[in-house]
Amino acid sequence: MDMSATEVIDGRATAMLSGYLETLSLVERMHRLLLDVVKDEFERIGLLEINPVQALLLFNIGAHEVTAGELKSRGFYQGSNVSYNLRKLVDLGYMHHERSSVDRRSVRVRLTPKGLDIRESLSALFAGHVDGLAGKGITSLDTVETTNSALRKMERFWMDQIRYIY
Length: 166
Description:
single chain; globular
């Protein structure tokens, strides 16, 4: 029995929906696992005063000086209170903060040497992950680049969806 063109299209649409839903689930689980991996590493090295979200804030700021608003608008820290986490990191000596002389509402932040040490710890952890993934043949540079390309396209699509709403 031959399938009609409509049945083929419906089958592809169903497969695409199934794959898309799996991607959504994987992205969510990957984020949670990343936080768990960072938490486990910090427990292993005895660093208990900051949480994984705060550590990733330090990692992503790196050598840059940014405003709190820039961090919020990038949207990397959904589900967390960026202002609270920044204040905590300043209080613990991981970040410097300075009010803008032009706009007193704006605060610029940058890492202290203590914050840069955390960033280096995470860099070493992630480099070890890359060695393990490549060394065990789990993934390759081509696969990572293809995955990143697909995820960037999804990100742009979602951003466009948000723009159309407003």
